[in-house]
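Ticket #4471: complex job returned nothing on first submit. Input attached below:
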Amino acid sequence: MSEPTLTWNLARDASEVLEYHFMVNALLAGTLVAVMAGLLGWFMVLRAQTFAGHTLAMMAFPGASAAALIGVAAAWGYFAFCGAGALAIGWLYGGRTRSWGEQSAGIGAVQALALALGFLFVSLYGGVLGDLENLLFGTFLGVSDGQVLTLALIAAGSLIALAALGRPLLLASVDPDLASARGVPVRGLSIAFLGLLGLAVAATSQVTGVLLVFALLVAPAASAQVLTASPWLSLVLTVAFGLLIVWVGLGIAYFSAYPAGFYIASIAFAMYVLARAWARVRDARGARRGAVSGSERPEAGPPPVEGVIA
Amino acid sequence: MSVADAGQAAAAPVLELRDARVEMDGRTVWSEVSMSMARGEFVALLGANGSGKSTLLKAALGMLGLSAGSIHVLGGPPGAANAQVGYLPQRRAFDAATRLRGRDVVRLGSDGARWGVPLPVPRASAIGRRRREESARMAEVIALVGASAYADRPIGELSGGEQQRLLIAQALVQRPRLLLLDEPLDSLDLPNQAVVAALVARICREAGVAVLLVAHDVNPLLPYLDRVVYLAGGHAVEGTVAEVIDGETLSRLYGVPVEVLRARDGRLVVVGQPEPPAHHHDRHEHAHGHGHGHVH
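Support reply: We reran it on our side without changes. The output follows.
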């Protein structure tokens, strides 16, 4: 069989890619990850909890090494440590909002402890963690059917949970005081959200690797939120961007000698840069139009509105 | 309901405190506080920083418990009728990066606390009709506060006055009978303070909503107030502006000589009130690890 080469006939390239079961699995897994990480990442970016998200992703390291030490499947380690990390951060910071500086310092401390534990377990295990490369960069092109199924179940579960919690979570994220006044359990939701995030991170990092999970959590949501402030549109864009990143990344990786993770991360970054550039051009054009059409009106009082008020 | 009953219901106070006392972290914030607000009244809650004004609002919402005395909101215990109480918490301006439109913030006031997602339903069904009513109400309330021009912009990009108007719309969207506003004029410049004060007064008058507005400067509100409640030294005094903001009354309340000066344009300046006791009080940060209570 000859080396796969990218031709200009994209339809033919696509069908060639899809001939291989491992590529189909990779694309399925990638699609599930893009949707789940995209939607959870949207809330994460809105709540300015990207550092907490990153820490949860890092929890996979002590998780994998603890599992190797004890001799159980790596998956248990991932879920246990990401879950514990989520609970720890949620319990520490899920309540009254602390200053961002205090929060990020505390989360940083948790992350440092996690990495230290990881190294401890590796040294106790007596050797090199052979799977370190897999841990960090994943095995996108070696996804089993079982893994795809697990991912699908977890994605379905988190999406249902997110659908149920989404609105109160949005209110609690934007205005915690008003949310408490309306009876929304702000702290509980905070912990629940971090728990969902931990679960999603644990599931996806087994496939995509710890470093890439973060790219898929942050980049699509950040790009979408830069471009629009309308929540529904923003969510749709987030998923669309995530799918684009994963499909194009995997597609190019099939034809190239370089790892899939590199392409996915680069495309994610490029997407964010493009979104920022577009937003800047749009804002500059908008400002110019505003200046041309007339000078700034002083803030007008409310118009004299007659009619039904209550 | 008979005419007599309806009349009595209309006359019942929307908010009533009797000898109420709140303690936080072992300290008494205020005690023996009695006040009552009738339907459609515009009342200002004044006092220095740290005197417990925000605490009173939170007690009225059922977010804090009383150690003594009673509170009745719309005839029931605090918290029970919160759907009919509009609340504007004290806050600093939205983070400039908050990526949510003003319109969405107002909508959160209407259905933000509901679980689940709005599923698509046929327009003619009961839910479809209710949704259309809610949309219409939202548009109405945004127009009422004069924010239609910028409701679709990200709220983080708007000025303080514009944000405040949208937040007032958010508090109004469910047609409350009582509006609790915690320092809405706080971060605004003087012209905007005047505009927002006038807006609140207009809403109060035309919609018959009782308004309790926490402020630390009474002057923007002077033309519109019905009555004033002044919190100081752990106690409160209630009455008209002339009765309460008066040198003798305030001196008695604070326990030290306090003077009230009247400028030529009618503005009042209180001079000589003592600084509140030294707890770490930062109105904009809501948490400290130290053991001090948060007295607002």
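Confidence is low (pLDDT under 50) at residues 278-296 of chain B. Closing as resolved unless it happens again.
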